[in-house]
Amino acid sequence: MPRTPEQNKSIKAQSRKAILDAAFPLFSKHGFDKTSMATIAKEAGVSKGLIYHHFDNKVDVLIAVFDNLMEQSSEVWDVFGEDESAHDRLLKMIDISILFTKGNPEWVRLLIQLALQEDVVESLHDHISAIRSNKLQLMIPLFEELGYDDPEAEVLYIGAKFDGIALGLLSMKEDYPLEKMVNRLKSEYNLKTQ
Amino acid sequence: MPRTPEQNKSIKAQSRKAILDAAFPLFSKHGFDKTSMATIAKEAGVSKGLIYHHFDNKVDVLIAVFDNLMEQSSEVWDVFGEDESAHDRLLKMIDISILFTKGNPEWVRLLIQLALQEDVVESLHDHISAIRSNKLQLMIPLFEELGYDDPEAEVLYIGAKFDGIALGLLSMKEDYPLEKMVNRLKSEYNLKTQ
Amino acid sequence: MPRTPEQNKSIKAQSRKAILDAAFPLFSKHGFDKTSMATIAKEAGVSKGLIYHHFDNKVDVLIAVFDNLMEQSSEVWDVFGEDESAHDRLLKMIDISILFTKGNPEWVRLLIQLALQEDVVESLHDHISAIRSNKLQLMIPLFEELGYDDPEAEVLYIGAKFDGIALGLLSMKEDYPLEKMVNRLKSEYNLKTQ
Amino acid sequence: MPRTPEQNKSIKAQSRKAILDAAFPLFSKHGFDKTSMATIAKEAGVSKGLIYHHFDNKVDVLIAVFDNLMEQSSEVWDVFGEDESAHDRLLKMIDISILFTKGNPEWVRLLIQLALQEDVVESLHDHISAIRSNKLQLMIPLFEELGYDDPEAEVLYIGAKFDGIALGLLSMKEDYPLEKMVNRLKSEYNLKTQ
DNA sequence: CATGAATGAGAATTCATTCAT
DNA sequence: TATGAATGAATTCTCATTCAT
Questions:
Q1: Which ranges does the entry annotate as DNA-binding region (chains A, B, C, D) (predicted)?
Q2: Is the C-alpha dihedral spanning A47, A51, A57, A62 positive or negative?
Q3: C46 and C120 inside one domain
Q4: Are B164 and B128 in a shared domain?
Q5: Which residues contact D165 (CB under 8 A, 6 or more apart)?
Q6: For chain A, which terminal residue's Cβ has fewer other Cβ atoms within 10 angstroms, N or C?
Q7: pLDDT (mean) for B21-44
């Protein structure tokens, strides 16, 4: 007997998930260009053809991985409760950002590379901007609360620091004194380092 | 009668220059991997074969581009006189760094991209390290003089800020509030903003 | 619905066969180096890409051609019964060898060419050695039985004669007095020529 | 003042010689295909262009090397005086042949490879045939004198033995019991082995 | 929905040959 | 006569994508 539409939907969702779960670490570790569709398919345990049932092309897979991650990471940012002080939330935010970079270095690397490329597909640019503005929306009130004059600029500025530290970490690896950098960063915002 | 060695040298230098001039913006705009030898050749108005007459392989072209630019930019740092105060030198250094990034975005972009590439080449890593340590040697005494506890870390930290700002500028272009960022940066080091 | 695994296997086997069937005469007529993958593909009526779907690289194709032919020709040597006299077996062996060369000149040509190639591959050398030692194991007892002092050297020596005759036949073709050569060979081992 | 025609001629002959002297060991060691014109030029200490002043193309160089060698080796065959016995001349001829193979293995390899290729240039085939018939003319009277029924076939036959031994030597290198093979060969012609 | 065989457009690199001087 | 810069076709190999089933 044929599968019910529900079954089909769930099967489809499952294989889609398998593909994205396979693609993320591959993109992350080896970069977008050096990850082949064949590798993704093999790693996901599906056929190459199936990937093209779910996605139009390789860039599309990247975008989906992107969005997937966005959802997850937006949850990451939801962690702080409404009742926490701005001070505590900034502290948490710094820790989370750094932790994310440390835990997903290759993904961050990819993000930066994409941000630097002039010719990335339109849609990707939009997605990257979306991430940025997302973060902005989240952080602006925080710096407002903390009494900064130009909270928007302040967010960009702390973002630059995050990016710079990420860059250092990515290029120097174990040699990078991440701890020191983070403490230095916190001290600039009068956050007690533990 | 054959061309004189001088003629040959000048002809060769000319085509070599054409190749490097074509390769640089391509590498920086699209990245090393996405730039093909065919594209470089076409852009330079020479044949693919000629590139291999000048360079052993693609990586070699990159290295040559690199060295070429290093030469051009190395003088930038030779600017400050011995008698200037640490305060003034830091101010100058910040201004020069920012100005350089603004004036040579492609070059900075390429530098960052290369710093992010894991595999490109050993030889390049040496070149990049050379730049870094060069800068370090220059800046450490400065922060020592300014009384910082851990001048080496401080150099890395301000370097991260530079990098982060550069990254922002490169991805947001005209939308980036560079002025604000620089002022913010200077204020953190108690430098009067003009 | 997808093809069944059986269908796929048969389709794959078919195209694999087409490739090997195209590669064999090309390799033997023009040699390994002068046979390009493009030529093989065209001759086989498939795309270049497909060859790489079946084989990792050009050498791999050669090895497959090799193994393919080995299988076909290995039975040739299984012919003589245990009860035949050494004299008769030697006679048979000579006839079979010559007949094989005559019937499979391309294959013999390829074999000789490969034996002459220094570098082609390690793996192939193993294959070629396997053939040689196979033949040795078969012939040494024969010459032992015939009372030769140094049967191993004798095998090498008659092998050289086979090779030399094959070489003559391959380069002179119909002009080569094969009959005469064989009779001359047999007379040296006191075998009556019919 | 301009060079005299004689000077020009001698200079030309000199550079021609340099090219051939460079080309022979290269062809010999690495084979025809794997020897590039650039390598020959560098080794000869001349420009690539000059080679094309002397020869139409790469095959032409090979042919010239060939002819050059022929001349030299024809002298080799002139060594035996008129007054030597057929027995001594055969002995000498065997020794010389083997010695030549031993001393110029790569050249012999090249010769065999060329003989096996179907598509070598016409002119080369002629040259190879010339070598063969040369040898034939030299050896036929010898075997006539020794009382063989069919001296022409006999020459082909001993030639096959030479070729076979050469093949063995080329593929087994130091492992080949050349001494034994030669002694075996000589014994077949009732030549005392020293 | 799913498969993987097949394609074809490039990618880097090599090299015989030409040509301006 | 002599140079070596320059060309362009060919080579091996990769990979996103298509398609018959």
A1: 36-55
A2: negative
A3: no
A4: yes
A5: C160, C164, D98, D101, D178, D181, D182, D185
A6: N
A7: 93
